[in-house]
Every structure is written in C-alpha cells, then in structure tokens.
Write a structure and sequence with these properties.
heterodimer; A: mainly alpha; Rna Polymerase Sigma Factor, Chain: A; Arc Repressor Mutant, subunit A; 2 domains; globular; B: alpha+beta; Phosphorylase Kinase, domain 1; 50% helix; rod-shaped
C-alpha cells in the first residue's frame, strides 16, 4: 500500500470513531486538554500500527488503543484509582435492593448521573461507558478492556450497583438541599 | 429461577446477552416477583439515564482538523522514506546508465592509432573509388615533391622506387587526423599503395606496426618528425618490402 492511500484509508477507518474515542478518553481522564492529547496520541499510535489492522471491528480496535493510551497516562500520573486493584471475586451483588422509590424515574437529572459516573472507579466506569454510551456487546468490551467475558459482566453489574448507590446518596443530598431551601 | 439467580443474570438480560432459554426463565420470574421487577425497572431507568446523549463528551470542534494535520506531519518522515526510495531508485538507474554508457564507450573507444588507421584506410578506399588517386599524376619525384609546396606546411620526401618495382604514380592532398596531409601513390602491378605523410611530434616508431583492416594491409611508422601510413591491398610481405625501401635513406 502506498503511503498516501494508506493515510487516506486510515482516516476513512479511524476518523468516524473520533466522537467515541474522545468520549471514552474524556470519561477515563477528567480533563479536556489531557483527553484531547490522549486522543491525538492514540490516533498516532493507531496510524503506526495500522498495518496490523486487517479490517473488522474498527471501533473496537481504535477504542482499545485509546483505552490503553489513557491507562498508561493514568499510571504515569499516579492516579490513586489504579493503585488499588479491584477484586473481581468480591461479591457486591447481595440481595439488598436499593430503594426503588428514590431511584430512576426517567427524569433523573443528567448532572447528577454525570457526577455519579465520574465518581465511579475507572475499572467500572470504563465498562459502563462502553456498554451504555457506545452500546458495545460484552464480547466487544472484553476485547477493549482485555478481560474475560464473565469479568466484564460482573464489573458491569457491580458498576451499576455502585452507581445506584451513588445516585441514591446524591439525590438524597439534593432532596435535603431542596428541603432546606424551601424551609 | 430464584431471586439470587435472577439477580446475577438480570444484567445479562438487560443487555440482551442471555440466550433465549435463560431470557424466558427470567421473564417468568419477573412476572411473579415484585422485588426483582422493581430492581429490573430501576436498572432500566439507570440504563436510560446513562444513555442520555447529554452525558457524552463531544470532541472539540478543531480536534478532527488537528488530527488530520498531525497525521499529515506523521506522514512526512514516511513519505520522506518513500521519496528517498524513489531517489535511490533514480540514482541507481542513473548510475546504471552511466556505467553502461561508460563501459560501452570504453569498449568501443579506439586508440588514436585505430582512429587514424580507420581514416587512412577510408581515404585509401575513397581515392580508389573516385578514381582520384593523384592530384598530380607523375612518375617523376621531382614533379611530385614541388607540387606540395605551398599546399602543405611541410615537404614530404618523395622517392622513386620504380627500380624496385614500385612505380610512383603521383601525389595527392588529403585530410587525415584533422590536418592536411600528403598522399603519395605508388603502383605495384595492379595494386595501388597510398602513403600518407604528415609531421608528428611523437617519438619515432622505428619498427613499423602492421595491421590489417577491411582486407587492406596498413603499416605505420615514424621517422625524423614525420609519421607515415602505407595502405594497400598488396600482400603484407611486399608492402613491408616497400616500406623498407621507403625507410632507407
């Protein structure tokens, strides 16, 4: 493949996933500028390894590179979230149901959801972002985060459970703020 | 299906990752368990909240442009390599052409003597073809020699060798090696001999060099600042004899 056509083909394959790449990077790294840099670095890396890409799921291919690039950055910047490896065996899925009254009317404030998701440890956050925002299958997610399918499923379940708890507490706070404002 | 089992599988059900049999079992359980149904509804609510587009971070407007130009910069060293490859190919081709040309030239290059030999043979042949052996047809050396005066910047020695069977036929002006030269014509039976004479600065070649070209015998030598070329279809032995006679003073 000649260089110009290789570059053109890369742009055709990779640029359609720019929004997904930026969204993932920005959710993994809480800074616009750093996320932008990570996306750019990821695209450069992807372009260099483009010869190893033989078609197939280009979004999963690109997001894997974005995810790994971001993880490298997170490790370098000593994010405490990564220094504490999570235990996937630990059972968080007890039968204690969250209070459904409080939760998840469709009108849950997006700001609150955003804040709760940002609070989630990165290992859970990434599977939630890939599943809900990119609507990836378990298999695709397993590829991107390089985990067994079962672990993807349990992380997703635990992530959702934690989110439910975080949302409950945030909505409780907001409710009490509202109450004190009304008082 | 129990509540515990449902609890474990409900995410797979929500995400459409369960097989049909498990999905039907979950649906059966949900139909009869309010707690699990509430949990499921809660998870569906969470899912739909998370799928709200407002949660997405949109890339900055200029990011795509930045990427494209970064990719273009990235391309440069590679396209430099690409161009470099072409340059190498071009240089190689050029070198090959030069080498071939040089080899061909060297191979076909003739020594100055070869060039002169070719010229004298050509001149000899031309003189026969055009029936223009002599500008001054004379068997008398005393007629031939003065004829060259004023026509050349040298005076060739003209010998009468009729006693030895080489009859002087005449003299002719010719042009060889980029200079006017004297051509002395002798006859031996039906054979014509052209002797080309012109001054030279090269060291005397006492031993004549004989060669054969296009069926003609060519003998060259130099003596006393003059170079001589004798050309004829005469056999070599007789031509050598003729040359010896000319060389004798």
């Amino acid at each position: 493949m000649s260089e110009p056509s290789r570059a053109v083909r890369f742009e055709e394959v990779a640029l359609p996933h720019l929004a997904a790449a930026y969204n993932l990077a920005r959710w993994l790294i809480h800074s616009d500028q750093d996320a932008e840099d990570m996306v750019q670095e990821s695209f450069m890396r992807a372009f260099k390894s483009f010869n190893g890409y033989y078609g197939g799921n280009s979004r999963a291919w690109l997001l894997t590179i974005v995810r790994n690039t971001c993880y490298t950055w997170l490790q370098k910047n000593r994010m405490s979230t990564l220094s504490d490896p999570i235990d996937d065996k630990l059972d968080e899925l007890g039968l204690d149901f969250a209070d459904p009254e409080m939760l998840f009317r469709r009108s849950v404030n997006a700001q609150i959801v955003r804040a709760a998701l940002q609070e989630l440890p990165v290992e859970f956050r990434e599977v939630v972002v890939l599943r809900e925002m990119e609507e990836m299958s378990y298999k695709e997610i397993a590829n991107v985060v390089d985990l067994p399918l079962g672990t993807v499923m349990s992380r997703l379940a635990r992530g959702r459970k934690r989110l439910q708890a975080l949302l409950a507490s945030r909505m409780g706070k907001e409710a009490s703020i509202e109450l004190s404002a009304n008082a | 299906m129990s509540c515990q089992q449902t609890h474990e599988l409900i995410h797979g059900y929500l995400d459409g990752e369960l097989d049909l049999v498990k999905s039907i079992e979950i649906e059966k359980h949900l139909a009869q368990c309010q707690a699990c149904t509430q949990n499921y509804e809660s998870l569906r609510g969470l899912q739909s909240s998370l799928r709200d587009n407002s949660l997405r971070f949109e890339p900055p407007a200029n990011l795509e442009k930045r990427l494209r130009s970064a990719l273009r910069r990235e391309k440069e060293p590679q396209s430099f390599v690409f161009r470099w490859r072409w340059a190498v190919a071009a240089v190689s081709l050029f070198a090959a052409v030069v080498i071939i040309w040089t080899v061909a030239t060297v191979a076909s290059r003739q020594s100055p003597d070869d060039v002169l030999a070719q010229e004298v043979v050509a001149s000899h042949v031309r003189s026969l073809m055009a029936d223009h052996l002599a500008d001054v047809p004379s068997t008398n050396q005393h007629t031939v020699k003065p004829w060259f005066d004023g026509k050349l910047d040298f005076s060739p020695t003209v010998k009468d060798l009729s006693q030895q069977g080489f009859t002087l036929y005449g003299g002719r002006l010719d042009y060889i090696g980029n200079r006017p030269v004297a051509a002395l014509v002798y006859q031996r039976r039906q054979h014509s001999i052209n002797v080309f004479v012109w001054p030279t600065t090269e060291a005397p070649v006492k031993n004549e060099k004989a060669s054969e070209r296009q069926g003609y015998n060519v003998i060259r030598w130099s003596n006393a600042g003059m170079t001589y070329w004798a050309v004829s279809d005469l056999n070599l032995a007789e031509l050598q004899q003729f040359v010896q006679l000319l060389k004798e003073t």
